[in-house]
Amino acid sequence: MAPLTRRSMVTFIEGIGARTLIIVRSVLNTFFFAGMAIVHLADRKTYNNATKMVIITQLYFTAVQILPLFISISVILGLFLMGIVLESIKELGMTGSLGNILMGFIVRELCPFMTVLMLALRSGAAINTEIAVMKVNKELDALNVFNIDVFDYIYIPRILNGVVSVVLLDGVFSLVLLASGALFSRMIFGMGMDAYISILITSAEFSDLVILVLKCATFGFFITLLPIRYGLTASNELTSIPIAVLNGMINVFIAIVIIEVISLILSSI
What is the pTM (predicted TM-score) of this model? Predict the structure, then answer.
């Protein structure tokens, strides 16, 4: 019985080690892929006429087509969340901290998180599936045969689109929520628009704006890079597509949580 127990323990430990190595290898490969993407993003040669057209097309699909639905969801969430937040502020007697809560929690934390979740569900999954299908159909190999840089023509437009789209749509979401805040601040606190805007301006800090833009850009970078990275793990079989998409989206949501935690740590320093 003892040998069996010892053998089982060894097998268990070996399993943990193997899974740890797989995770470490995956993380290193992801950072290597991210490094290559940054190099291409910084290279002027990347932005030829063909790449620019793909970038414009991707921005239209991600940041423009989604606007009616995005604004509708923003209004609904804005009315729901701002009503709860402002009513809670009144009940807790924290009216003096209204500006800090709106700028610190709503604008800097909640808006980017909600924005990136919506874009990850819509565009991240679409990119993941698209790249996996292209890999299975050997479309990427065909581009390489014609000496077309896959990184410049396929990957970079989608990654840059993710960065720009998250930054811009976060601005839209923030404006909608702050407009809802103006409505509820008048209903709950009897506060005029001039006083509301004055509180927001007084509470806004340049460092918060920098952190917000960097966080949105980082969100956008990884919610497009990871779907591409895991879409490329698809094999030549159609059955590998859903597996690649599932792995990609799981890692996207893990990355979102990690970025949010790092942002909170940096904000508290």
Answer: 0.87
Contact 253, 223 (CB under 8 A): no
Asked whether residue 37 carries a pLDDT value surpassing 50, the answer given is yes
Q: Return the percentage of the chain with pLDDT > 70, whole number.
A: 97
Proportion of the chain in helix, strand, coil states, percent, rounded to 5 = 90, 0, 10
CA-wise closest residue to 112 among 265, 9, 259, 267: 259
Residue 25 to residues 39, 136, 160, 233, 245, Cα–Cα distance (Å): 21, 23, 26, 14, 19
**120-144: average pLDDT:** 91
Residue 141, CB-side half-sphere exposure with 13 Å CA sphere: 8
d(CA 108, CA 213): 9
In this structure, are residues 174 and 107 in contact, taking their beta carbons and an 8 Å threshold?
A: yes
For residues 190 and 188, what is the distance between their CA atoms, to the nearest angstrom?
A: 6
The residue with tokens 């089982």 is 8
Query: In 43-124, which residue ranges form alpha helices assigned H by DSSP?
Result: 49-59, 67-91, 98-101, 111-119
Least confident of 82-96, 103-117, 221-235: 82-96
For 249-265, how does the pLDDT look when each residue is reduced to its tens digit (9 = 90+)? 999 999 999 998 888 88
Torsion angle defined by CA atoms of residues 95, 97, 98 and 100, in that order, rounded to the nearest 10 degrees: 180
**Are the CB atoms for 195 and 92 separated by under 8 Å?**
no
Could you tell me if 34 and 27 are in contact, meaning their C-beta atoms sit under 8 angstroms apart?
no
Domain ranges, ordered by start, for the chain: 1-42, 48-268
